[in-house]
Amino acid sequence: MHSLEQYTLELRKFLSGLKVNRAMLATAASNFPKLTIITPSYNQAAFLERTILSVLNQNYPNLEYIIVDGGSTDASVEVIKKYEKYLTWWVSEKDKGQVDAINKALRRATGDYISFQNSDDVYFPGTFERFGKAATSYNADILYGDLFMISTDDEVTEILKTTSYSFDSQILEGMQIHNQSLFFKRRLVEQYGLFDESYRFAFDYEFVTRYTSHSQTTTRKIDGLGGALRVHEDAKSSTIAHVGAEEHKRVQELYISRNSSAALNKIKYLWCRVRKIAYFVLRSDFKYIRYRFSR
Known about the structure:
With 295 residues, this protein is α/β, with parallel strands linked by helices. The protein folds into two domains: 4-256, Spore Coat Polysaccharide Biosynthesis Protein SpsA, Chain A (Alpha-Beta Complex), CATH 3.90.550; 258-295. It is 43% helix and 18% strand. It has 13 helices and nine strands. Strands 1, 2, 3, 4, 5, 6, 7, 8 and 9 form a nine-stranded mixed β-sheet that branches. Helix 3 runs parallel beside helix 4 (76-82).
């Protein structure tokens, strides 16, 4: 594992400007699954360009990039227009919020896999290439990886590693897969529906739980696949965290078995915690275990 300083230098270099590699883009697109990236946007001009660069600088040869702006009143539209020729489709119009914006794009998406990155978050270098290889090798319905936390000036402040997926852990512990490092097959949307617009914060927790509640949905953790969540005072995690807690509880109540006693759920929860530590112990990742305990 690199140091946080090394990750910071790598990310800042990656986001320093547009780096279109025409040789990579000329690679036969048929060698890679088609990927739809969606960016919902609203008055995040301070960060939006870096989100866009984190997508375009991947130089992924089979990319469909959609930006849905909610009628921003800052410089967001100017930023979008700067990269308009690289976009498949974009719009700036009043909507009903983030989930409505994503659903608008989902209805247009044609990719084999879909990912969405909020207009203040970013992908790390090489993410799409690793994704493409993993999608070809495993053909899982959901692919996901680790999460980085970054500051307003792209300093990497924390790393959150994920484990192999467990539905019990998803219900009893909370979100196991972070949207910043998530790719899912479009067929899941077609089969199980769009995102639930009654959620303002935990809509990602809801749709991942809903999709994976079906036993035929397959998941795969991809080592090294990384996106980054930007922490700042206007982020939803800062402004409406209490709504997130309420909505998480709402999802949990939908899926916790009514036949399970509180004592049994407590035992399952403890098992989930032990399972997480065991995951890293079995991979001899003691450095990360120490790192997490130190946090």
